Task: structure prediction
Amino acid sequence: MLTSKQRAVLMSQSHDLPTLAHIGKNGLNDAVLAEISELLDRRELVKVGVLKNSGVTGKDVINEVCARLGAEPVHVIGSKLILYRLSTLEGVEHVRLS
Result:
């Protein structure tokens, strides 16, 4: 579980991140979850977009994504989710939490 201070640090780091994954009209399916999981393994901090035609909002799906992937919710701003998960892969540069 992230502290509020760690969340603030992660939010500031995520400001310039590109949106690397999108939840589209097919909703939160296994392919999208696999893509987000792979991104979390490689980057630890990921910004995910929720498209308007998906029929859901960021607030609707962030808890489900985190529960299914073992990730931590950092923040939801409109249609953008920011997720964090510590990577166990070798050679991954870890995100600074403080």
